[in-house]
């Protein structure tokens, strides 16, 4: 990193601090800090949703996916569009009309206070796990750029600590309002950074663009739709995530869970100015996701072309860790001063915006659902919880820096899979409440949630050697998540019917 890079980065930081300070001015209450006084304009919420969704996992993991494979990751955006449409037409309207501070209040009204508290607590754990993976992924790039090796050989644990500290302080300063308004700037920065790297890379490969396009097409690097193998047909694998069916099913259920039950995303919809704006922001963000993801996949294809043509300066992308860091290495070793600072600022924006939203959402779920008596302590309790969850995020990030260091899985698939550890069970409980409501009951729902969480954790962490000797999950998250949802709902319905039968016999 040269002086000009640091000038660009510090200029970006100054911009974000200024916006955050301006947004957080005026008298503060715990409610206003966490809900932005329910006065957020729709266009700003769209930017914030995108900035939260496009985390470091997207900024680094999607180019890695495009480098190793093709553009089939866009199939998840197709499934996501369907899932977000259901959320905007069913969940968003319902939440907004009930004027709920969090999504989990809905469970309290339909099933009981016990499942409301337990589900909110499960969300907190699940969100810290998912965001801890994002923190680890961001640290992979941060460690390359800053090189702060104090006690490790890679600098990744040190980078995890630095990113967790920055995100915690950032969230303490301004709450949801500051998160949303700074996300407007950060959403622009990370897209400009990725697009700039793409244009520079293609322009500096000594081959006509038409020839490079033909090479990428001939090698199948730009394939978007992959129909085969057909489900359960010849060549089918439960570990595969590259087919259209995987993209539609996985994208649908994951987005139904993350945008319908995850307070990190729901908090944006709950705090718009009007009910119609609540659903409209979600659909708009779903449509913008397509060109956004395509840009990051194009970066991956450009990196493949860079390696194929031996463009200078060359760098290694052979070992699993080198492949994971293929885009960060390009940023550090290839981009010129100034542009390098801009692209790194985009990466930093993607990381901090998503982590700040996590800390705000977990705090909101705690004071509204898990420990509502903390509301009496006002801002003191809110800020103490943000710090506490900042340490939790740090711990999870350090765990995944150790656990995933030698894995060959795509970073983006690790990040998405980690989200399904608890989200399948949580979505199952919400569907129980939505379709059957009081007939299920509080206690059966709590037991069903516990079964679903245990099943989700087993699917994610249990690994066995495949034919090549590489440790792989029993099945990919796109298939294990629907199974977890179905198991959670089945247990809840079975226990509620048994309870009803027992009461009837008495």
Q: Sum up the overall morphology in one term.
A: globular
Give the terminus-to-terminus CA distance: 75 Å
The neighbouring-strand order within the major sheet is: 1-2
The CATH topology label is: Sodium/glucose cotransporter
Helix content: over 70%
Q: Spell out the CATH superfamily.
A: Sodium/glucose cotransporter
Low-confidence stretches: 29-37
Q: What are the defining features of this structure?
A:
mainly alpha, single chain, globular, Sodium/glucose cotransporter, 2 strands, 19 helices, 506 residues
Provide a concise account of the structure shown:
The protein is mostly helical.
Structure description:
It is a single chain. Helices cover 75% and strands 1% of the residues. With 506 residues, the chain is mainly alpha-helical. The chain has a single domain, classed as Sodium/glucose cotransporter (Up-down Bundle), CATH 1.20.1730. It has a two-stranded antiparallel ribbon. It is globular and about 70 Å long.
């Amino acid at each position: 990193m040269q002086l000009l890079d640091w000038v660009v980065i510090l200029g970006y930081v100054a911009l974000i601090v200024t916006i955050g300070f301006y947004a957080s001015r005026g008298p503060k209450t715990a409610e206003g800090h966490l809900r932005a006084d329910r006065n957020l304009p729709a266009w700003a919420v769209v930017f914030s949703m995108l900035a939260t969704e496009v985390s470091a996992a997207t900024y680094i993991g999607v180019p890695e996916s495009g480098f190793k494979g093709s553009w089939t990751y866009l199939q998840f955006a197709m499934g996501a569009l369907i899932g977000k449409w259901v959320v905007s037409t069913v969940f968003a309207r319902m939440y907004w009309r009930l004027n709920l501070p969090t999504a989990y209040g809905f469970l309290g009204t339909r099933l009981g206070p016990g499942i409301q508290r337990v589900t909110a607590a499960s969300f907190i754990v699940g969100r810290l796990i998912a965001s801890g993976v994002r923190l680890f992924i961001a640290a992979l790039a941060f460690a390359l750029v800053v090189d702060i090796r104090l006690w490790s050989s890679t600098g990744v644990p040190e980078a995890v600590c630095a990113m967790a500290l920055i995100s915690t302080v950032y969230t303490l300063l301004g709450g949801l309002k500051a998160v949303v308004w700074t996300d407007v700037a950060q959403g622009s920065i990370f897209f400009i950074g990725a697009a700039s790297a793409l244009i520079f890379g293609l322009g500096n490969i000594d081959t006509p663009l038409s020839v490079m396009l033909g090479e990428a097409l001939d090698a199948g690097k730009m394939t978007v739709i992959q129909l085969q193998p057909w489900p359960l047909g010849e060549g089918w694998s439960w570990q595969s995530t590259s087919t259209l069916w995987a993209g539609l099913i996985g994208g649908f259920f994951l987005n139904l869970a993350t945008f319908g039950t995850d307070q990190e995303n729901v908090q944006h919809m709950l705090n718009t100015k009007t009910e119609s704006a609540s659903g409209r922001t979600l659909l708009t963000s779903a449509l913008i996701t397509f060109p956004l993801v395509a840009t990051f996949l194009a970066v991956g294809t450009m990196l493949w072309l860079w390696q194929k043509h031996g463009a200078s300066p060359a760098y290694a992308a052979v070992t699993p860790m080198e492949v994971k860091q293929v885009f960060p290495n390009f940023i550090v070793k290839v981009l010129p001063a100034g542009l390098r600072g801009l692209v790194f600022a985009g990466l930093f924006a993607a990381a901090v915006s998503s982590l700040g939203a996590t800390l705000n959402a977990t705090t909101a779920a705690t004071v509204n659902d898990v420990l509502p008596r903390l509301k009496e302590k006002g801002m003191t309790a809110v800020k103490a919880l943000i710090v506490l969850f900042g340490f939790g995020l740090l711990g999870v990030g350090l765990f995944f820096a150790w656990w995933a260091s030698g894995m060959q899985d795509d970073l983006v698939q690790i990040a998405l899979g980690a989200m399904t550890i608890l989200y399948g069970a949580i979505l199952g409980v919400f569907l129980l409440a939505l379709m059957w409501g009081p007939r299920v009951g509080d206690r059966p729902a709590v037991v069903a949630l516990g079964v679903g969480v245990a099943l989700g954790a087993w699917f994610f962490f249990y690994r066995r050697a495949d034919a090549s000797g590489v440790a792989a999950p029993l099945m990919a998250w796109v298939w294990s998540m629907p199974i977890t949802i179905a198991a959670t709902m089945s247990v809840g319905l079975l226990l509620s019917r048994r309870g009803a039968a027992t009461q009837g016999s008495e």
